[in-house]
Amino acid sequence: MDKARNDYEAWAEVNNLNSSQVPDDIADGALIGKWEKPCESFVKCNIDSSWINATVNTGVSWILRNNFGEPLIHSRRSFSSVPTKLEAELLSFNWAIDCLSDLRLDKVVFESSSYLAGEAILRPEEFLVFQDLLAHIRVKLTVFGLWNISYAHLEGNRCAHEIALSVTRDHRYQSYIARGGPFLLRTLTLEDVKDDT
């Protein structure tokens, strides 16, 4: 019974902390624009995409960090012929959720700068054009014991954004999953942790 209570309290803490994290034009109140550590029993997966148009490769990325802010794993993937920005954002969620479900993580906060992608996952009946992709995402989410999707301004999602940009800006099309954080973003990940203390 104590484990169930602890899990519920952890879930409630994550959802209460992130319930105000919606765009300013959707809800009143201030949005914190910096990266925040997840609560103790969770890991946080920041997700982003870089989309220019349907004829240019799209980059998607994620970076997983623990409650100390230490990067555990990160990934980048390139997609071609993605017709819309929203589909690119959903593909970034799909890539992250597929990878992390395969790693058998239990409690994950998925955080993205795309409010609309989060809404599509939580309310798939309002985004019927993406019903197959959303159904796949929602099935994969059942693998996790507890999960949450939250919104962050770009300032709170800088590392994932830079990794995704490496596809469209730097033409790095090689997809990969790697331990830790990207060496080139080490300073940025350290700044995030410093700013959150």
From TrEMBL:
<dbReference type="InterPro" id="IPR002156">
    <property type="entry name" value="RNaseH_domain"/>
</dbReference>
<dbReference type="InterPro" id="IPR036397">
    <property type="entry name" value="RNaseH_sf"/>
</dbReference>
<protein>
    <recommendedName>
        <fullName>RNase H type-1 domain-containing protein</fullName>
    </recommendedName>
</protein>
<dbReference type="InterPro" id="IPR052929">
    <property type="entry name" value="RNase_H-like_EbsB-rel"/>
</dbReference>
<dbReference type="InterPro" id="IPR044730">
    <property type="entry name" value="RNase_H-like_dom_plant"/>
</dbReference>
<feature type="domain" description="RNase H type-1">
    <location>
        <begin position="46"/>
        <end position="164"/>
    </location>
</feature>
<dbReference type="Pfam" id="PF13456">
    <property type="entry name" value="RVT_3"/>
</dbReference>
